[in-house]
Amino acid sequence: MSDSIEIGSNDRVFVLTGAGVSAESGLPTFRDNNGLWNGYPVEEVATPEAWAEDAERVWRFYGMRRRDALTCQPNAAHFALADLERELEERFFLCTQNVDPLHERAGSKRLIHMHGELFRSRCERECGRGDFSDERIYQSASEIPRCECGGRIRPHIVWFGEIPMEMDRILDELDRCTVLMVVGSSGMVHPAASFVEWANRRRVRTYYIGPERPLNSVSFTQILLRKAGEVLPGIFRVSQSG
Q1: Cα 230 from chain centroid?
Q2: Which of 103, 115, 156, 190 is catalytic?
Q3: How far apart are alpha carbons 81 and 196 in whole angstroms?
Q4: DSSP one-letter code for 4
Q5: What tens digit of pLDDT does each residue of 44-77 get?
């Protein structure tokens, strides 16, 4: 891979970020080699069944994640993507698998959190109230608030078995892009792992940047196995013509 990514004046850039970007800011990655998530089996904290079985355990887990995220700051990769957005404006779109707010803290605005947002909550009954900002930590079942409809308030997170958020808009942006760049995503979780295949059908230029080779690495045009915070600053060459 060359030391630069060329972006022409007619290019539209779609960026997908995964846990590797947040890991460079000190946040744990989604799952370790033992199939655990911060020491928890995923099925105990990140499924609708886990919520139905033990909402207190689920909220304790997400409370821990909220505390971790509150102390973390954006890294050079977050800032580089925010700078690229400011330069490309409407020709840039960021889709993140991460639920933390580090992209926003770096200045990103044109983004979708396809797996939800850590500091937002919503009613378990999908009653229509919608999601809302929430930084509270719930330690016991008695602390979990109730919606006006009577349903319990749950994390605004897409759990396994649930449909990612705003997929219509995400797919529309994929259909419009001419450059797809995936940063720090393992290639394990679908549908995000399939984005590069969809892009390849349209012969879109595809790049992967991250310290570890993703499971879908053979699908990319070019791969750079280095930390995003080391690579992204200064890698973009944006042309104003042609």
Answers
A1: 19
A2: 115
A3: 19
A4: -
A5: 999 999 999 999 999 999 999 999 999 999 999 9
